[in-house]
Specification:
Oligomer: single chain
Order of helices and strands: HHHEHHHHEHEEEEHEHHHH
Number of strands: 7
Shape: globular
Strand order of the largest sheet: 1-2-3-7-6
Number of helices: 13
Distance between the termini: 114 Å
């Protein structure tokens, strides 16, 4: 009988175990390839066993809101160029993610947006002027977060993940049937707040859906410089959170995957992580020069994967859309943009004394004094104008 020398045994490579149904990690892993239901041409792909196709009525509404959302996005970009907005982060190209996600939750669920989710908020039914109030330069968001179950748009990366986890835990603790949907960019997954939010939600089984829109760049930093993971969805397994990845330019697949993720969280099974592979067609904001870090050929390649065209083609082929219906939706989108343009061209009424509101819960003597000085100066200016 021969034996392997000890040195050889020590040097032999260890085999890597593959995930099997008996492996606890197996149920947490995303599919090896993003879930797709429509190809780039809008052709229906074979049914996915884990994700039922959304109802036709839901797909028609998804298309309608995507068309209106894109027109809103174009109009908001134009308002920025006209000086009506201080800044605007476009979400053109990400319509399936923006609209599909909010259609997967109830009005009573909470949404936690980033600065790029203006389209998602309008799709949620919030007045577009109120949505743009913060980006106009005001000190607060224009809508009532509590009434709309929608947190203010968040500029710091990933801080909203902690807010979402805390709110969801609190709602579940009080016995309320609430899910928190939190939007995250790929860059936010590199932040400590992302770790804290996902880990807390996992440990306390908070009903949160973490929705990562991987649009390939954190401003100018490509994904390859952010992570070595096979995909961002694989980060879920480290926290004990099930995850899935989806073609973010396939509206049908986005709605199907998010619907399942929300149902998972609502059933008391804890959080769920979804990564959508998509692309930001426009610069990071109007202050960004995207040509410095990506070339035109890359942008054009993604233009062929347009989510609006993809869903329209499918619905036309299924007999659910015709020229008249498409024209009617386009007209509705134009009217929406015209109304927004008209109201945004009105100068907002600004009260300079509001600068002193909400600085402290109880104004300090110095703050009261400063407020009185400003009030006196304004009164003097009005008297001067009246004498002129």
């Amino acid at each position: 009988m021969t034996t392997t020398p000890r040195a050889v045994r020590r040097a032999a490579p260890r085999s890597r175990r593959s995930a099997t149904p008996t492996d606890p990690a197996h149920a947490l892993l995303p599919a090896a390839e993003p879930v797709r239901m429509l190809d780039e041409t809008g052709t229906r792909l074979p049914a996915h066993p884990d994700h039922p196709e959304p109802p036709t009525a839901a797909l028609r509404e998804l298309y309608r809101r995507m068309v209106i959302g894109r027109r809103f996005d174009v109009q908001a970009t134009a308002l920025t160029k006209q000086g009506r907005l201080a800044v605007y982060p476009s979400s053109r190209g990400q319509e399936a993610c923006q609209v599909g996600a909010v259609l997967a939750v109830r009005d009573t669920d909470w949404v936690f947006p980033t600065y790029r989710e203006s389209m998602a908020l309008t799709a949620r039914g919030i007045d577009p002027v109120e949505v743009l109030t913060l980006l106009r330069g005001d000190w607060h968001c224009g809508y009532d977060p509590a009434a709309r179950h929608t947190a203010p748009q968040c500029t710091p990366l990933a801080t909203q993940t902690v807010h979402a986890a805390g709110l969801a835990y609190g709602e579940a603790y009080q016995g309320r049937d609430t899910v928190a949907l939190v939007f995250i960019g790929d860059g936010a997954t590199s932040e400590g707040d992302f770790h804290e939010g996902v880990n807390f939600a996992a440990v306390f089984k908070a009903p949160v859906v973490f929705f990562v829109q991987n649009n390939k760049y954190a401003i100018s930093v490509p994904l390859s410089r952010q992570t070595a993971a096979p995909s961002l969805a694989y980060k879920g397994v480290g926290y004990g959170v099930p995850a899935e990845q989806v073609d973010g330019n396939d509206p049908m697949a986005v709605l199907a995957v998010l619907t399942r993720a929300v149902a998972h969280a609502r059933a008391g099974n804890g959080p769920y992580l979804v990564e959508a592979h998509t692309y930001r067609m426009e610069p990071h904001t109007n202050a960004d020069d995207a040509s410095r870090y990506r070339d035109g050929a890359e942008v054009e390649a993604w233009r062929d994967r347009d989510p609006v065209t993809r869903l329209e083609t499918y619905l036309r082929g299924a007999g659910e859309l015709d020229d008249a219906a498409v024209a009617a939706i386009a007209a509705e989108a134009e009217a929406y943009a015209a109304d927004l343009r008209e109201r945004m061209n009105l100068a907002p009424a600004v009260d300079p004394l509001s600068l002193f509101d909400h600085v402290y819960a109880e104004p300090t003597p110095q703050l009261r004094e400063q407020r009185e000085q400003v009030r006196a100066e304004l009164a003097a200016a009005r008297d001067t104008e009246g004498d002129a």
